[in-house]
Design brief:
nine-stranded antiparallel β-sheet; about 525 residues; mainly beta; 1 helix; globular
């Protein structure tokens, strides 16, 4: 069962618009040749589209129901990455993305496309939502602001956007049946669409299109989920005819216990070297990016460079110019000193912006009255850093009201948390497990308190440590401190699930919701994501 069938059942290019097949040329490297190791990012970034604009690399990824959506990652060497912003500022695709009478779990931002159009110096993001229609967003800088350019009635499933050498915009899309659409010069409308390829039954499903023009030929890079990569090539134009070749199938990946690298994109360095950035299924943490060099056959087909018959755990570092600066780490401390959130943060569904503020800490006022965390608005999430990492949060809970629940969760379709429960005028720290969903993402368990301890002060440190190495049962543990130095374990470990069907991996999450009445608040003074 492919991804689209499973979900239905349960409810790029470089600057200049084309890629050239040239060999690597000498270029000033930032250091003597060294190795990089895979994964290049051990966080959950899937369905990658990767491009280069001048000396900067950008990538986009899926975020499903998290808001803002479609993060834009930035790098100067293809190895070290930071989050620059998000292409989709808010998921304004219906009330379910606001947790208003319905929920958007495992919907929202799926595989989409990121491109750059040199003629107007503009970034484009394109993706379909809910099999209904396609949205296009644009920005003149990767960090934004991004705004919606248009809505197109055709849902371009798993789309790849190409800016051709004559500035024409084309989109490759589809599942098994692959089509190509031409857009109007302003990118607002569809001019033409045509089926260009039908996947042979011997291959099965192909999706996840990425669209390129290389040396005058058109290429559509396609995924066989979740263990293969294929490519179509046409010398007759963007509408074909296309011939197909297998790039990889059942290739051993670089992460022990993880899956086959697939569903990513090709990119060429300034010096002419080629790389394929894919992702590996690595649950419970999610789907994480890996990078490998690519060569080309004499007749113009890409070949992934292997190490002992597998995607390498390490390769020589790409030869690129000295980066202009170091990228911002995806781990470290956040004290919420600014009114805008760091782009490492994403809300579980759209937030109620009247119920939170930042600057001198993060204030979360209760936004929902519910006993179900999966229905609570303004839950703020952060990806887990692999292979193991710890989130520590300092919270001032003195403004909580009776019935309020606030704290630090490990959030997925099976969740647990450590946090504060205020009842009858007193507050205690508790560990709650058993928050669960079924395969249609309906709540099946709202959690049970498994341990607690009394509190006598208004500030507490909460900690969650997660082991997200794939391939075996992994756990997360919870602890708390009243002085920020000595931490006490609370409750049993949470067993982290390896099932792929929620797609997104476990995340750390900050939450505050009411079970009786609105009006309470907590202030997050400090968040730290650290690795051993």
């Amino acid at each position: 069962m492919d991804r689209r069938q499973a979900l239905t059942a349960t409810g790029g290019l470089v600057a200049g618009g084309f890629l050239s097949l040239v060999g690597p040329s000498p270029i000033a490297a930032s250091a003597a040749p060294a190795q990089y190791t895979n994964p290049v990012i051990w966080q959950d970034f899937a369905d990658i589209d990767v491009i280069r604009v001048g000396g900067t690399y950008y990538a986009s990824a899926s975020t499903m129901h998290y808001s803002p959506g479609a993060p834009v990652l930035r790098s100067y060497d293809l190895v070290n990455w930071e989050i620059a912003g998000h292409s989709v500022p808010v998921l304004d695709f219906g009330a379910k993305y606001d947790l208003n009478g319905a929920r958007g779990y495992v919907r929202g931002i799926w595989a989409s496309s990121l491109a750059y159009r040199p003629s107007n110096r503009t970034f484009y993001w394109l993706g379909q939502i809910d099999f209904a229609r396609t949205y296009v967003y644009t920005a003149t800088a990767a960090e934004g602001p991004w705004s919606r350019l248009t809505t197109i009635s055709t849902p371009y499933y798993d789309a790849g956007l190409l800016v051709d050498t004559d500035d024409t915009l084309y989109v490759a899309y589809g599942n098994t049946t692959i089509s190509v659409a031409q857009l109007s010069p302003d990118g607002r409308n569809q001019v033409r669409t045509q089926q260009v390829f039908t996947t042979p039954s011997s291959v099965g499903t192909l999706e996840g299109s990425r669209f390129y023009k290389i040396n005058g030929q058109y290429y559509i890079f396609l995924t066989r989920p979740a263990n293969g990569q294929y490519i179509l090539k046409s010398s007759g134009g963007p509408f074909g005819p296309y011939t197909m070749r297998q790039v990889l199938l059942d290739l051993r990946g670089p992460i022990s216990g993880g899956g086959v690298p697939h569903q990513g994109g090709l990119v060429q360095t300034q010096g002419g070297a080629w790389y394929y950035m894919a992702f590996v299924d690595a649950y419970p943490g999610g789907r994480v990016p890996v990078l490998a060099p690519v060569g080309w056959t004499s007749d113009g087909w890409p070949v992934v460079q292997l190490v002992n018959g597998a995607w390498g755990a390490s390769y020589p570092r790409p030869a690129v110019p000295t980066p202009p600066r170091q990228v911002t780490p995806m781990t470290g401390v956040d004290t919420f000193d600014h009114t805008a959130l760091n782009p490492r943060w994403e809300w579980n569904h759209n937030p109620d912006n009247t119920k939170w503020s930042a600057g001198n800490g993060l204030t979360l006022r209760t936004a929902t009255v519910t006993n179900d965390l999966y229905w609570a608005r303004n839950t703020l999430t952060h990806r887990i850093q692999g292979p193991t990492s710890t989130a520590t949060v300092r919270i001032d809970h003195s403004a909580m009201r009776d019935g309020d629940r606030a704290g630090l969760a490990l959030l997925r379709d099976s969740s647990a948390w450590i946090g504060l429960r205020r009842d009858g005028g007193t507050t205690r720290v508790a560990m709650v497990n058993g928050l669960t969903m079924d395969g249609s993402w309906n709540t099946t368990g709202t959690g049970s308190e498994l341990a607690s301890a009394p509190l006598s002060q208004g500030v507490i440190w909460l900690r969650a440590s997660a082991d997200i190495r794939p391939g075996a049962a992994r756990t997360a543990t919870f602890s708390y401190s009243t002085d920020g130095t000595t931490f006490t374990r609370l409750g049993p470990p949470l067993s982290l699930g390896n099932d792929w069907r929620f797609f997104m991996g476990h995340r750390f999450a900050l939450f505050n919701h009411a079970t009786q009445a609105l009006g309470g608040a907590v202030r997050v003074l400090r968040f730290e994501l650290s690795t051993p």
